[in-house]
Amino acid sequence: MVRNFIFICILFISVINDTFCQSLFPSTFRFLDIPQSSRHQYLNKGAGGAYDYDAMIAGANPSLIHDEMRGKLLASTNFYFNSIYSNIAYFTANDKFDIPLMIGGNFIAYPEQQSTDIDGNRGIPFTPIELSLYAAGAHQIDKYRFGGQAKLIYGNYLLANNIGVAFDASCMYIDDLRNIQFALILKNMGYQFAGFGSSNNATPFDIQLIFSKRLERLPFRYTITAYNIYQWDSDNFTTDYGIWPLDPFYERNNTTLNRILNHFVFSGEFFIGSGFKMGFSYDFKRANELQFTEFYRGIPGVAMGLGIYGKKYELGYSFSKLSAAGAAHQITFIANLRDWAVRNKR
Length: 346
Description:
This protein has helices at residues 2-20, 38-43, 256-261, 284-289, 337-345; strands at residues 72-79, 84-94, 99-109, 113-116, 122-126, 129-141, 144-157, 160-175, 180-193, 206-214, 220-227, 239-240, 250-251, 264-272, 276-283, 302-309, 313-323, 326-336. By secondary structure, the protein is mostly beta strands. It has one domain (2-345): Porin (Beta Barrel), CATH 2.40.160. It starts with a helix and ends with a helix.
């Protein structure tokens, strides 16, 4: 079965690679890469391999959507430096085709910006906003789960109003006897259509391979995620800028080992009973790109968080260290509307 999954991965990557591999730079609608919940944030891309019927990570991989999530309403907010990201999702199912579904929307609101013309004269202030509406579903065949998600995307940037579409496709192999999961995810296959004052760009496409295992004698799961695997050198930096304006520039020696590690995210999670989870992750690429200098790295790339789970509600919190200057904090709340409805009838 594992050999079959490996064959599917190679087939998917070979078919998609030529079409989308050029879309990493430049790309638009980068907010699609923002984690959609607190657990998704503290596990980072490793959330796509954590199959345990948790609605908090369904946005990381459509194959994770399960019928056990039916009737749940998710609301999540991520607080950045000067902007706010929010995501709302509702989980239902199509009984005729046995397909659990997730529908929802998310948006990011940026702070007010000042428009200027080519001569530097001030124009009207404006507030950029980007949003998407999405629908996703999953289906299981034997030990394999297949998922798909479609997104309609809109961005308002004063004179540029852009519309785009994107699609996610995923395949997941689940071995319950050995408590392991393999996942292949094709993220954000799509395109931005030309809007007034805009240009055509691809969406932030990515290919992710995820391995996850839960230990037998310890309530712990570890996950190894490889991403941007179609592009060997995916760094966004060439020179270190100092903290202060007169600091000298530092040329970085990007070794082969760094280039390899920049494609990996490592994450882990502890389970305390059935009502509490706590986890962390480390993203090498983010750590390398968001440090100030070699002499003042801070801890960018680190994310940590926790979740509390009850019958009627679920609550999660996480923070992600974006740079030495600050972090993003995300709060997620899930209400089990089916359980509330049953209790109200009683």
